Amino acid sequence: MTAYHVEIRVMPRGAVLDPQGQAVEHALHALGFAGVSKVRVGKHMVLDVEAPSRDEAIARARAMCDRLLANPVMEDFDVAVKNGGG
Amino acid sequence: MRRVAIVVFPGSNCDADTLVAARAAGSDAYYVWHRATDLQGADIVVLPGGFSYGDYLRAGAIARFSPVMSAVVRHAQAGGPVLGICNGFQTLCEAGLLPGGLARNARLKFLSRPVRVQVEAIDTPFTCLYERGETLEVPIAHGEGRYVADAAVLDDLEANGRVVWRYIDDNPNGSSQRIAGICNTERNVVGIMPHPERRNSSVLGGSDGARVFLSMEACNATQFADRVRAGGDDELRV
Prior knowledge:
The complex is a heterodimer. Chain A is α+β, with helices and mostly antiparallel strands. Chain A has helices at about 20-30, 55-70; strands at about 1-10, 45-50, 75-85. Chain B has one domain (about 5-230): Class I glutamine amidotransferase (GATase) domain (Rossmann fold). Chain B is about 25% helix and about 25% strand. Chain B has a nine-stranded mixed β-sheet, sandwiched between helices. In chain B, strand 10 (about 180-185) and strand 11 (about 190) form a beta hairpin.
């Protein structure tokens, strides 16, 4: 078993209104940051997952997203393994 | 007298009001702690409003894995009535007992004020004493009440009369099709964002919500009328 460092990104689905992203975008414009658009705000989660392989660590993280960490009705997620070992 | 289990999660804060409202309607209402695995002979289960688990991750996302929820799912699958109010609605969606989900209010603000809703479905255990099309004033108190679902679900809800309550006059949180409450296909599981337990007496500013609780006592007579008719030749007279 190896501890894999897993990073999970959960984002509001493209078709779903993201009022947080809109509010941040308005604030950026108010601060004078021109040319900023399509701001979306999501969640970043970091965890160590013990697994026999890198693929298995990804599979477990995806299962966690399916069951708890993301809501498939309104969110998409992706999973990245930053390093294997240690 | 129906036995009404009010489920208490860590962070529930409308449990006491809901208990009082159910008892005022004549029910034998009692609390069930979220770690319980037995509903103590409940006829009806209510998931009250509040902020279970601090709304961490998403509202209702962690509560749905509380031990009691297995019993609630079994109760629902056996046809037992289940009502989720506000955070309870969010939890029912997270648990998959109702379709869709509740997202952050469109204008981000936490909204705590009376709203007007229309009762659109009266063939549920929680609305059988209302009239179809009746308008009510009930309060909302939520930050994540914007009902979201994909187009197929929304079409199904509309086509099959599963929108139980709809906001009128305005759409406070930006819900799809101004949805304030829905039911499942079998119509025994109902979720609503407004708080009927906060309008069950004139001293609370109105009693438009009282019949949600009175319906629980009365639903035996009306909710299952189709089933009774199907079993015999005589019309059930209510």
